[in-house]
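User: Mind token order:
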Amino acid sequence: MKKKPALSFWQIWNMSFGFLGIQFGFALQNANVSRIFETLGAKVDDIPILWIAAPVTGLIVQPIIGHMSDKTWGRFGRRRPYFLVGAILASLALLFMPNSPALWIAAGLLWMMDASINISMEPFRAFVGDMLPGKQSTTGFAMQSFFIGTGAVIASALPWVLTNWFDVSNVALAGEKIPQSVKLSFYLGGAVFLLAVLWTVFSTKEYSPEELNEFEAEKKQSSDVPETPVATSKSLLPSFVRRGLIWLVVGILGSLLIQQMGWEKELYILSVGLGAFGFILLVSAWYTRQGLVNNGFVEVITDLMNMPKTMKQLAIVQFFSWFALFAMWIYSTSAVTSHIYGTTDATSALYNEGANWVGVLFATYNGFAALVAFLLPVLARFTSRKMTHAIALVCGGIGLASFYIVKDPHLLVVSMLGVGIAWASILSMPYAILTGSLPAQKMGTYMGIFNFFIVIPQILAASILGFFTKILFEGHAIYALILGGASLLIAALSVMFVDDVDQK
């Protein structure tokens, strides 16, 4: 048996470099897709339902890719084939998105783009768990945060930079709908995405399955944490049936209530989602009863039911953190252009000026996240990873809620510094805490399942934020950002109850 060796700074740099490209595409999507939707005719309260493609895709794709990558080994290794395939598909989607002739096509391309980004992103999280010993995991995820911030700061600001530095048109040309600044940004993003991922694919060598098994055996032998008994799919059969029936009934009754009350159709996303989860559990029960347990579907559901304690605790933190982020990504453009710039006309020069400034603000929080990424491990050594994450989330909550009182758009840069601290920590600390509690042979699967607690709050946000904005907030998107700030504060409180196995 042998210990997993520590890697050098440049080895960690190379294995993380692909995240520069992944976040380049992700940031272009976050900062500009709502703008594209509104330009193509979407109303502000319709935007969340159009964004539903992103979280639903992640919910489906990430556990599948994680499970497949756990069982893959070939010429390009275990995780790297998925990096490459996802990068090629995402680059193509980035080329087509700004040329969408209609709203429904743009929504479909968002689905394709997010699926492709997820194919690349999920194995990168497991990659750190595969390659680094526990003591370096915080540094590894901090390095990912650095590249995420660096890629996002450039990508988010691209339309503004192209307009102000290179005199690229920021309004659509005659006969077109999307400004040239946005189009060119997406073209450059596609190229950067592919090249950055290729760097990691060809500069990093993965450990073989045999080596990983030796590392895992040594980890178990040296650990003083008792193993939690793992339930089999057969022993979970009654739970599959019971929980499946409960969630199926809740979903059906919820859908009937929405129909009866005449509520917003977006709420069906929530009720149908709950019913679908119940149906999935019942299908798992049927497969198990038939003895068909050696397949990816049943294995993923069984692993979901066997989540480690630390993962369950982090799920609550992730839920409130990502609900806030999704509210920010959806509504920042509408909130800033209406609350601060005073316009809702998506075709006006003033609106496009405000929309470009949102891109700069997104670049600000991502850039600051890149700068503080390596300070977080230092703070964690003097306090703890939990305390570091809690402090960062509080900074983000205050920053996001402050949008309501700020009147000068330039002062929003200060607000975004708080968001940047939270973003850097969200991208690193939960994963660093999580990896110590996961078995190596299921690292990809559990990283994919952990993504559930990122995309479920996004689905919830897409379901209810449109309803809240139209009915409760009377069309004022700024209140969605205040709600997001409160959600980050709840996440900060929740993280203090997490059991960090590696720091015992």
Summary: The chain is about 75% helix and 0% strand. Residues 12-205+306-503 form a domain with the Growth Hormone; Chain: A; fold (CATH 1.20.1250.20).
